[in-house]
Amino acid sequence: MRVHLISVGQRMPAWVESGFLEYVKRLPPECALQLVAIEPGYRGKGASVERAIAEEGQRMLKAIPRAARVVALDASGTHLSTETLAEQLASWLSDGRDLAWLIGGPDGLAAPCLSRAEWRWSLSRLTFPHPLVRVIVAEQLYRAWTIVQGHPYHRGAGDCPR
Fold first, then answer.
1. Cβ–Cβ contacts within 10 Å for residue 100, how many?
2. Nearest by Cα to 41 from 29, 55, 28, 31
């Protein structure tokens, strides 16, 4: 299974690239993570935000691999524990279909992207800087994979210092 992280934004700070690539290199071939950076819609003075979102959505939909399962990162999506994400990942791995995770721009995902998604995932009720979401998603994928594999990377909520 390949995981395609289809995300709006092409020029990210070095710390984002570095953090994302750290988790990409840790993942094995059977759960390979690939970034597809989508050009943002124009948001200059007098520009229509709705039009920018629509343009991004069209580009994202074209980037989804054929027959891939689509998951949209969306504030109104399902909140999961890492352990539940690991259970979901185990199911996806056994299914074998490629997975496409959609991360919208600063104004969210276009309605057609949300409609195309088989599942919507909310990372948190917190608001994160858009570039940081790439790193969080990559880390959570790696963490979920380590749980599935029985690797000691994940230590669970009970092991975290308070």
1. 25
2. 55
Length of the chain: 162
pTM here?
0.90
CB-based contact 16:138 (threshold 8 Å): no
Helices (H) and strands (E) in the chain, counts: 5, 5
Max Cα separation, the chain? 53
Comparison of pLDDT for 158 and 139, the residue scoring more? 139
Distance CA 16, CA 129 (A): 11
Q: Regarding the domain with residue range 2-159, which homologous superfamily does it belong to in the CATH classification?
A: SPOUT methyltransferase, trefoil knot domain (3.40.1280.10)
The three-state secondary structure class of 77 is strand
- DSSP 8-state code for residue 156: T
